[in-house]
Design goal:
single chain, alpha+beta, 4-stranded antiparallel beta sheet, disordered C terminus
């Protein structure tokens, strides 16, 4: 199949798509690194100061951050928070704690590139009494910049935690927050821009 643009505007659109693809290839999850429920369930200790332990499983995968690729092996029970009451310290909400029932929070996992070394970082968002408010209180791009010391990063996933009772905690993993490869364009998009042979 070959593509022939019909006009200069279509040529410009195609060039724009190509540039978008180049940027995405420098900052993308090429395969895997999908989050799922942990092998060992997350836990919540009793009381307002009870320790919250949040875990997640990550599948093996390859990620590129600022043009540097790294292959990760699968990781079971990656600890996102441990030993103390949960606080949203990374979202500029250090006093925002998961201390009562009916309380939500988001933890965002990002991959950062520090001088060519790729590693995963947990960014803890603020807490709220609804999932929607907690989503609004998750770490912003600027707060993630601060957490990773202003080096390039890519969002891997969000993990929503919910304390529904004194010692009851549940979680939901969201892999849709990761960047999408610019090459994942449907043929319909190209057809609308010009002729496809």
């Amino acid at each position: 199949m070959s593509f022939r643009p019909r006009s200069i505007e279509e040529t410009t659109n195609l060039f724009s798509l190509f540039l978008h693809w180049l940027v995405q290839m420098k900052n993308s999850i090429l395969t895997g690194l999908l989050s799922s429920a942990p092998t060992t369930a997350s836990t919540q200790a009793t009381g307002a100061t009870g320790a919250t332990v949040v875990r997640v499983n990550l599948s093996a995968g390859i990620i590129t951050v600022a043009g540097v690729a790294k292959e990760f092996t699968a990781e079971a029970d990656r600890v996102l928070h441990d030993t103390t009451v949960y606080t949203g310290a990374d979202a500029g909400a250090g006093t925002s704690t998961l201390t009562t029932a009916n309380c939500y929070a988001y933890i965002t996992i990002v991959a950062k590139n520090a001088a060519g070394t790729i590693s995963l970082v947990n960014c803890k968002g603020g807490t709220a009494t609804s999932a929607a408010l907690a989503l609004a209180a998750r770490c912003t791009d600027a707060e993630i910049d601060t957490k990773v010391s202003n080096v390039p990063w890519v969002r891997v996933c969000d993990v929503q935690i919910y304390r529904s009772g004194d010692t009851a905690i549940s979680q939901v993993q969201d892999n849709t927050v990761r960047p999408i490869l610019g090459s994942n364009c449907s043929e319909e998009l190209f057809t609308s821009m010009g002729s496809v042979d």
